[in-house]
Amino acid sequence: MSENHLFSRLAAYADANPDKTFALRPGREPQSFGQTFHNARRVSAALLAAGVQPGDRVAVQVEKSLEAVELYLGAVAAGGVFLPLNTAYTASELEYFLSDATPSVVVCDPSRETEIAPLAETAQLFTLAGDGTGTLADALTEAAAEPVSRGADDLAAILYTSGTTGRSKGAMLSHDNLFSNSATLRDYWQFTENDVLIHALPIFHTHGLFVATNVALLSGAKVHFHAAFKPDLVIEAMPSATALMGVPTFYTRLLDDARLTPELASNMRLFISGSAPLLVDTHERWEERTGHRILERYGMTETNMNTSNPYDGERRAGTVGFPLPGVELRVMGAEGPLPSGEIGVLEVRGSNVFKGYWQMPEKTAEELRLDGWFITGDLGIIDESGYVSIVGRGKDLIITGGFNVYPKEIEALIDDIEGVLESAVIGIAHPDFGEGVVAVVVPENDSLTPDDVQGIAAEKLAKFKQPKQILFLPELPRNTMGKVQKKALRETYANLFT
Ligand code: AMP
Which of 181, 193, 252, 415 is buried deepest, with most CB atoms within 10 A? Predict the structure, then answer.
């Protein structure tokens, strides 16, 4: 059999244990590991028949389904480069991705076929609905292809970054980027075939697609496979599950549910959070309610996972733990690496780090150093015991009257005020100061006023750090991965001082 670096490794457990259950889905029959990989090899045969050559992109914008997971595996097995796209993207957004990536196959939801067909004229177009039906299913026969030979450094996937500044960039991920990181996480988080993972994340993003899916496949863990995050389904699944991977919003939503108790979580061994900062308050409330300390980790599309709080040992709230085995991490200042206790830009190096941005050599050169260090753009700090904390995105740094203000410091102070649920601190163009500090605050109830918050800020913060305006909002704008959209806030309030 030919060696396909990622597929062969992901298929190893399934080939040895074909009858073991892989996925449980509400209202559907359980599906085995063997069936999942047999289907993936059938998809691979169909893609090869459609003309997919090694390195060709297979672009996919479909609802989350097990068939979509089989499509991911089938695309990799066929030697293709899997390119998942957020289901929220509109036709005009898709036009950019498809013209940039020039896929040879595009798979979309049947409801969008007529809209997408003109954007994919040079590609073969298939459809795949959330229930697994569509022209892709129609094209499958019993013929199952052997994986096409691909090496460790060949591309397995391109994931477009969320593009908070400028155009979205296609992060090129190799077979070994994906395999090595999944193997590291399986070992670090001690996943085994006895685990049952609640999989409620989207699979167009690195978290749900690679962290959750690959770790489960590699370790032989069963998954409760949910098409979307529904607190009711998670609560129903928890007594028969052992692990949950989620974004912070999962945890805050579950905390709102009275059914969340230590008994409900008594079979669980691990709650993992990432993709956006987990509030210390959420961490503490989760422990009070369930007896479990959430394990927070840090990663990004370009690098897979970089750091994690320890499995055994102290999971420290507000930190993202230590660099994972095989990952080097440093904090860079203007003159070079900084000692612990100082804030700088986080850089990482290791087999997890991507191969560059698709067709953007200048962008790649700006962010990926020749010696392999990737400049993450995240501002961070390492304390004396080695725990890493994220202080914010570099571009969120506020420079007011020539002084640097780290939003996280002010957010932490505001979040600690009685009656504050959460906050986001941004810089807005200011005629005198260059940028003025603005705090957007979500109060818990009506008892708190902006003046109260201003009073506390005035008492505790140097004058230049004090918000020049405090705005109360019922909630912060967030994307599907739970990230606060500071860019949207900056746009909304762009003219606040002018
Ligand atoms: P993405 O490429 O969509 O996964 O976004 C990656 C970015 O999410 C990182 O560069 C960080 O800014 C942020 N991020 C991911 N995990 C965490 C975390 N645990 N705490 C704070 N920020 C995080």
Answer: 181
> What's the topology of domain 397-492?
GMP Synthetase; Chain A, domain 3 (3.30.300)
Query: What's residue 359's pLDDT?
Result: 97
Instruction: Tell me, using a 6 A CB cutoff, whether residue 367 lines ligand 1.
Output: no
Given 3-state DSSP classes, what are the helix, strand and coil percentages for the chain, each rounded to the nearest 5? 35, 25, 40
Q: At residue 41, what are phi and psi to the nearest 5 degrees?
A: -70, -30
Counting from 1 in the atom list of ligand 1, the atom nearest the Cα of 207 is 4
Q: Is 409 exposed, middle or buried (0-12, 13-18, 19+ CB in 10 A)?
A: middle
pLDDT of residue 333: 94
pTM equals: 0.90
Tell me whether residue 434 is exposed, middle or buried, using C-beta atoms within 10 angstroms of its C-beta: 0 to 12, 13 to 18, 19 or more: middle
What pLDDT digit, counting tens, does each position of 101-124 carry?
999 999 999 999 999 999 999 999
Pair of tokens at residue 333: 């200042």
Is the pLDDT score of 1 beyond 70? no
- Asked if residues 100 and 170 have their Cβ atoms less than 8 Å apart, the reply is yes
1-393 is classed in which CATH architecture?
A: 3-Layer(aba) Sandwich (3.40)
- CA 275–ligand 1 middle distance (angstroms): 4
Three-class secondary structure of residue 289 per DSSP: helix
277 C-beta closer than 6 A to ligand 1: yes
What single-letter amino acid sits at 143? A
How many angstroms separate the alpha carbon of residue 392 from the centre of ligand 1?
Answer: 9
Q: Domain-by-domain residue ranges, the chain? A: 1-393, 397-492
Nearest CA to 222 out of 190, 196, 198, 191 is that of 196
pLDDT digits (tens, 9 = 90+) for 253-300: 999 999 999 999 999 999 999 998 998 999 999 999 999 999 999 999
Residue 164 has pLDDT above 80, yes or no: no
